[in-house]
Each structure stands twice: as C-alpha cells, then as structure tokens.
C-alpha cells in the first residue's frame, strides 16, 4: 500500500482550464498564469481610475515589430467629488531587452516581462513542474526589476467634471475631444504637451506632477444630459459626432480653427446613445447604438432620422465597432454579456453573421483588429479581455492530434467556442 501511495503522490498535478463565472476556487486554491503566453506584459497604476483612454497616433511608422516600442496616450480621470478631475497625456517606452519602461510618474508595475531568453525557454517548456518554477522566477524578477524602474514625465490638464470618454482625432492626433459628466463636450489642443513628451529624452524619478490649467478650443453645452458616445471621422478631418443619454446626437463641422455644432440633433433612438462609429469608407455615414437595444445607420445628407435601424440585442447595446478592413462588418456588445457580428449589406434582412454568449457580465468594449479583418477583442465587466478569430472552425481531427501532443497539459472544455483565441484575466472594471 505504501508503494501505491508513493506512486500517486509522484503523479503530475491535473491541470484544468479556468472558466470565469463557471468554475469556483476551492479553499486554498489560487489561479496561475503561464508567462509564455505573452510576448510582453506590463501593468501600471496612474493613481485614479479612468473611464476612458485612447492611443495617440504617431509618425514613428505603421509596422513596428522590434523593441523598444514607444506609445503615446491620453486618458481622463474619474475622481471623487472633492478632487480636481484631469486629462493625462503620457508616453510609454517599452524596452524588452533591458526590462525598462518609461512611463507615468508615481506608477506601480504589477507585471514585468521576461528577458527574451527566458521567454524562449518557457515556450518550449512541456513539464508542468518546470512551468510552475518559471512562474515563480517571473515573480522574483518582477520584484527586483520594479525597484530599479525609471519613468518619464507626463502632463496633467485640469478638466471640468469626470471624463466619460476621450478620443484623439485620426488626422491630427494632438486634437482630442472629451465628454464630461457635467454635460459638456470639449475639444482640446494637446500639441504642446505631446511635443514635450516626444522631445524629452531624460527620465525622472517618480513623484507627483502638478495639474496644469489649459483652455479648450471649444466647449459645447447644447446637450441636455451627459453622455459617453463620441467619434471622429476617419474620412473628413475634424468632423465629429457626440451622443448623450437623452438619445440626441449632434454633428460637429470644423470651421476656421473651431467647430460649428448643429443644434438640431439626430433623433431616432428611444433611450441613451451609448456609442458612435463613423463609416470607414463613407464620410457622411455613421452608426450608433443605444440602451433601446438597437443599432442605427445615419446619413448626414438625408435628414435627421436613421437611414436604417435594427434590433441588435435583447438588452442595452453598450459598444459597437465598424470593421475598417471589411467595411460591411459591424460588431456590437451588449449589457447581457453577448456580442454579435452583422453584415451591413443584409441589414434589412438576416444580417447576423455570428452571436456569442461567452461573457457573464456586460461587454464594456469591443474593437476590430486593425491588421486582421477577422480578429477582434472584447472586454467585459467579468474582468476578462478576450481575443477572437471569426475565421476559425472546429476540426476534430486536428484537435485530437493537438491533445495527444499536450499530454499532461490542460485541454479546453468542449463548450468553449473554437473562435476564442485568448483570455486575459488580470483587468478589473475594464472600460473603453
């Protein structure tokens, strides 16, 4: 009997794929992730939560595959009532070789990358015990590297009210639009701050940075309620639409260094407008989604009512994304956790291409990949960020061959969609 017990103790642990919202942790259990799943992973804290952020386009090149990488971004804070809200402009320098990150002052890193040779070793690691050892090494490296991290200056710009949404213009990335919980929509010129970030070559120690006063180019107070929906046209520079919680959508036209806002709104939704997306190919066409469960297509040339409208979900439609590589495809995410793909060429009939009920809580953001027309990312209030490839289909023979190679590794549950490529579970309360 002793020999049998010894044999059982020496068997490798049985791994299972964790399914958030389905599986429960037993007492004493904890989740572990495999660092080999990431080429690069970092986390940082900017002090206050932000409801919205946007990547600022730069002129450093479209296809950048080698480290170090530079990223510019803007974000807007959600702060307690007694504190001053502000907009953040920042640059991040991501250097894989030296494990160095130049980013926001006062931040705390939660995840650090392996050096390249460690990542390569883990990729070829098939032994579960060795994988756990490498995970522990990851944690040790994180602690050591966190103490030696340096950061680059960022800028904070005072903002009236919580920033519900912030968006950078495609053609002029230093121009940003913000939605405030005060009901105001403002357009800003952050060229001075972004230029300083681009010119700065020195790192500074972490510490508090002052909040600067900066006047917006325009402040529009014609909305009767706060809102979240806003989008810049990718085809006509400076053209903007903003939608509020009273179902009104206003069109902004650029004029002599400012904007003329049409005070006569587009009307067609029965509830709050949650998101807006301009057509990637037509400068006069945009789409909206609403709490009324509908997606509407609008043409600015033919009046103030929707050209098309479709019931997209049984619950609120929180977000939409118009595919810029396959312009007939529209993705939408709902409050019930589902997301759908529609072919706009058949919007009057059966336009539904795919419908997924994977997430267990509201979908908070959805975005098509700018490089692969069949790939998109979805974030949810269930603390998951998932990546999907709609071109994939289940192949039982290929799956059987793959399982044979995995041996003691975990296999995916049968009910997982074959289009699900990746699950990232670190985020909490992720937003658009």
UniProtKB/TrEMBL annotation:
GO cellular component: nucleolus
Positions of the Histone-binding protein RBBP4-like N-terminal domain: 29-88
Pfam annotation, one family: CAF1C_H4-bd
Chain positions of WD repeats: 266-308, 356-398
GO biological process, one term: ribosome biogenesis
Keyword tags: Repeat, Signal, WD repeat
InterPro entries associated with the record: Glutamate-rich_WD_repeat (IPR051972), Histone-bd_RBBP4-like_N (IPR022052), WD40/YVTN_repeat-like_dom_sf (IPR015943), WD40_repeat_dom_sf (IPR036322), WD40_rpt (IPR001680)
Gene3D superfamilies: YVTN repeat-like/Quinoprotein amine dehydrogenase (2.130.10.10)
Residues making up the signal peptide according to the UniProt record: 1-17
PANTHER family hit by this protein: GLUTAMATE-RICH WD REPEAT-CONTAINING PROTEIN 1
Family: Belongs to the WD repeat RBAP46/RBAP48/MSI1 family.
Name by which UniProt lists this protein: Histone-binding protein RBBP4-like N-terminal domain-containing protein
Species, as recorded: Acorus calamus (Sweet flag)
Source organism phylogeny: Eukaryota, Viridiplantae, Streptophyta, Embryophyta, Tracheophyta
């Amino acid at each position: 009997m002793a020999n049998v017990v010894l044999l059982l103790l020496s068997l490798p642990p049985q791994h299972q794929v964790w399914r958030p919202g389905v599986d429960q942790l037993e007492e004493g259990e904890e989740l572990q992730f495999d660092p080999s799943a990431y080429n690069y992973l970092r986390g940082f804290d900017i002090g206050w939560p932000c409801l919205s952020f946007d990547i600022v386009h730069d002129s450093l090149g479209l296809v950048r595959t080698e480290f170090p990488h530079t990223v510019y971004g803007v974000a807007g804070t959600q702060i307690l009532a007694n504190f001053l809200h502000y907009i953040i402009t920042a640059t991040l320098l991501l250097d894989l070789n030296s494990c160095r990150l130049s980013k926001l002052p006062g931040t705390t890193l939660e995840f650090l990358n392996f050096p390249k040779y460690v990542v390569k070793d883990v990729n070829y690691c098939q032994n579960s015990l060795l994988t756990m050892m490498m995970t522990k090494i990851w944690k040790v490296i994180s602690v050591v590297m966190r103490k030696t991290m340096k950061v680059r200056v960022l800028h904070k710009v005072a903002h009236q009210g919580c920033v519900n949404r912030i968006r950078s213009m495609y053609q002029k990335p230093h121009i940003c639009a913000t939605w405030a919980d005060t009901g105001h929509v403002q357009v800003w010129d952050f060229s001075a701050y972004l230029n300083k970030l681009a010119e700065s070559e020195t790192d500074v120690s972490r510490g508090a940075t002052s909040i600067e006063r900066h006047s917006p180019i325009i402040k529009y107070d014609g909305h009767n309620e706060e809102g979240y929906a806003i989008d810049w046209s990718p085809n006509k520079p400076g053209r903007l639409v903003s939608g509020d919680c009273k179902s009104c959508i206003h069109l902004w036209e650029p004029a002599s260094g400012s904007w003329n806002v049409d005070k006569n709104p587009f009307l067609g939704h029965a509830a709050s407008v949650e998101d807006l997306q301009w057509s990637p190919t037509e400068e006069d066409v945009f789409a909206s989604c609403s709490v009324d469960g509908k997606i509407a297509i609008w043409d600015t040339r033919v009046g103030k009512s929707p050209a098309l409208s479709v019931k997209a979900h049984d619950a609120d439609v929180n977000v939409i994304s118009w595919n810029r590589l396959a312009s007939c495809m529209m993705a939408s995410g709902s409050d019930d956790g589902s997301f759908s793909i529609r072919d706009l060429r058949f919007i009057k009939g059966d336009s539904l291409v795919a419908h997924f009920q994977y997430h267990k809580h509201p979908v908070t953001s959805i975005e098509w990949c700018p490089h692969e027309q069949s790939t998109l990312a979805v974030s949810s209030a269930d603390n998951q960020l998932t990546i999907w490839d709609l071109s994939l289909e289940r192949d039982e023979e290929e799956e059987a061959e793959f399982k044979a190679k995995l041996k003691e590794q975990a296999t995916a549950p049968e009910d997982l969609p074959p289009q699900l490529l990746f699950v990232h579970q670190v985020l909490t309360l992720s937003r658009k």
